Amino acid sequence: MNSVQRQSPSTLALRTLLGVIAAVTVLLLLAPTVVVVVVSFTNGYSLKFPPPGYSLRWYEALGDAWQLQFAALNSLKVASAATLISVLLGVPAAMAIARSDKAMARALDSLFMSPLILPALAFGLASLIYFSRLQVNLSLTTLVIGHSVVAVPYVIRTSVAALSQLPPALLESSASLGASRAYTFRRVTLPLIAPGIAAGAFIAFMSSFDNVPVSLFLRDASTDMLPIRMWQDLEGKLDVSIAAVSSLMVLITLVLMIVMERLTGISKRIR
Fold first, then answer.
1. pTM score, two decimals?
2. Which CATH architecture has domain 65-269?
């Protein structure tokens, strides 16, 4: 008698109900993305589902969409800089937190995680007020600072998780053989936690590239960001090329997630 047959009718009904709810939830989450991808191949001039016909014309049109290209380049610059800063700040912070059991370390951990708890719009507005009080002009620099604050927690979390899996005996053996802390970090610790750092950097980059609230408050009039440009174009003219950009972003994100999962096991690092 197998396990399914041994289950009571109430248990089997509950498992079936939970399975149906999970399937419906997944369908509701994926349906908008599927609709956008399908609409991006339309040969018409409006966002209509199902499309009247199929064509690659809107993907070809992206080659002349200089505003979207400029915004994408800015987003790439800000996300790359924010990711680099997040790694440089997040890894040392993670090492300090992971190696200490003091209350101060726990307090610092909560402080570093606070940008993920605070509503993004509230953080963006508070950052704008802060820079205004300091009389700092909005620019790419303010965007990088704001995005870095939001991205650092991801690097800290994955790096702490990687450090918690590091066998203490390795560090003790390195120290007993006369290696300095810097040498141990460079030759022992860093190679072992590199997948965790890479996972955090990937999440930080994606969160920065797709960030709207912080970019909305901390950019100046001449600095265009891709998510905001897409939002403005949809509000003004419902340009079908936005669906093509969205589809490309979905495809690139999916490919990068698969690559990062194979290289670093990112799904295990963010638990």
1. 0.79
2. Orthogonal Bundle (1.10)
